[in-house]
Each structure stands twice: as structure tokens, then as C-alpha cells.
């Protein structure tokens, strides 16, 4: 069983100063609203409702932490999966959008326990202007990024490969970037994505 399957809700925070002190590895999930982020988290953790998206666009504004328990030390965590607020709804007031941008950018730039970033991009849209803005925050940190091109089941195999190549080219300034097709419904890319995230949380010792 994957260690991700043991994840459980730990805490929500509306602001960075409400987050618990950084202690162990965190892997954050970030992407445009309606990019399939909640579905990805749920299938990776093998849970139906661990993460959920609001039916009202732009309503979910909290940072949600899901702790992965340490099997050796009761009450401690191996790491956390961090669900960052979705971004990009035009219907949300500009002031609120900028406030979210400050939270997202601050977390990505300044969180010392951040071990990896899962960037979710709708394969049908490709890299949008907002994704590019997000990449501009990420690139200077040199934190490794796994770009999941969600809803990949909507494309035939050859088109998926072209989409991955296009994303890699557009986000080349993120040095440690891995991009792959992903589908929560068809479980495309699930095993590879799971292995990458597990390794960020609990790195395998290679002789």
C-alpha cells in the first residue's frame, strides 16, 4: 500500500502565519481552478473525499494540510500533502485574486519544508498565462516540479505526447521539471506520479 493512502486531514489555514511550524517534508498541489486538482489528490490517496472542490467558483480559499502518519513514531508525520487554493476565476474580485496570489507566492517562495511541487495543468488548455505566472514564482526556488497534465483521457496517445513536449518547452526555466499525462478517472500516470511524490516525502536510499 502506498504511504499516500494513509493521508488524513490535519489542518486548514487562511493565511501563511496560521500554518503549523515547518517540520517535515511537504508536497504541495497547485493549479488553476477546475483543473482536476481535487480529483488528482483523491485518486493518489485512494480516498473519495479527502480533497473536494466547491461548487461555487473561487470559493475554496484555504490551504489544507493532509498528514501522512509516521509508522515508527506515534503522533508524528512522515510528511504532508498540501492543497493550495485554486487560482484563475475571473468572477472573483480582483482584490481577492491578488490576495490569493500573495498567499500562493509566499508559500512557494518561503516555505522551508517544501520538498516538491505538483503543478496541475488541464491538458486541453496547455500552459495558460496564469500557469506562466505561477512558474515565475517557482523557477527561482529550484524546488523540483511534477507537472501533471490532467484529463489526459480526453486525448489520444500521440496527442498526449505532443502536449507533454509543449509543456516541457514552455516551462523549461523550471530546472527540475518532470511532466506527464495524468487522468484520475482512467488512472493514467497514477503509479509514476505516486512514486515521485512518495520519494519527495520519504526519499529512497540508493546505494
Automatic annotation (TrEMBL):
Identify the coding gene: engB
Job of this protein = Necessary for normal cell division and for the maintenance of normal septation.
| Superkingdom classification of source | Bacteria
Q: Provide the family line.
A: Belongs to the TRAFAC class TrmE-Era-EngA-EngB-Septin-like GTPase superfamily. EngB GTPase family.
A cellular component term from Gene Ontology for this protein is: cytosol
Q: Which UniProt keywords apply?
A: Cell cycle, Cell division, GTP-binding, Magnesium, Metal-binding, Nucleotide-binding, Septation
Q: Pfam families under this entry?
A: MMR_HSR1
Q: Identify the cofactor(s).
A: Mg(2+)
List, for all copies, the residue spans of the domain called EngB-type G: 23-203
Q: Which HAMAP family match?
A: GTPase_EngB
What does the entry give for GO biological process?
division septum assembly
Protein name (record): Probable GTP-binding protein EngB
Q: Give GO MF terms, alphabetically.
A: GTP binding; metal ion binding
Amino acid at each position: 500500500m502506498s504511504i499516500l493512502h494513509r493521508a488524513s486531514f490535519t489542518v486548514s489555514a487562511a493565511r501563511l502565519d496560521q500554518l503549523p511550524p515547518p517540520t517535515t517534508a511537504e508536497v504541495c498541489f497547485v493549479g488553476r481552478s477546475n483543473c482536476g486538482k481535487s480529483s488528482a489528490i483523491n485518486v493518489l490517496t485512494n480516498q473519495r473525499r479527502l480533497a473536494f472542490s466547491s461548487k461555487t467558483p473561487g470559493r475554496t480559499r484555504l490551504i489544507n494540510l493532509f498528514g501522512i502518519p509516521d509508522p515508527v513514531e506515534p503522533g508524528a508525520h512522515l510528511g504532508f500533502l498540501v492543497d493550495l487554493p485554486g487560482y484563475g476565476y475571473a468572477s472573483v474580485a480582483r482584490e481577492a485574486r491578488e490576495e490569493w496570489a500573495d498567499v500562493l507566492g509566499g508559500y512557494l517562495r518561503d516555505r522551508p519544508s517544501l520538498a516538491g511541487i505538483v503543478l496541475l495543468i488541464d491538458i486541453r488548455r496547455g500552459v495558460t498565462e496564469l500557469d506562466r505566472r505561477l512558474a515565475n514564482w517557482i523557477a527561482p526556488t529550484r524546488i523540483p516540479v511534477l507537472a501533471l497534465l490532467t484529463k489526459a483521457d480526453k486525448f489520444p496517445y500521440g496527442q498526449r505526447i505532443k502536449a507533454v513536449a509543449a509543456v516541457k518547452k514552455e516551462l523549461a526555466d523550471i530546472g527540475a521539471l518532470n511532466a506527464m499525462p495524468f487522468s484520475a478517472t482512467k488512472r493514467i500516470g497514477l503509479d509514476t506520479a505516486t512514486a515521485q511524490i512518495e520519494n519527495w516525502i520519504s526519499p529512497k536510499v540508493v546505494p
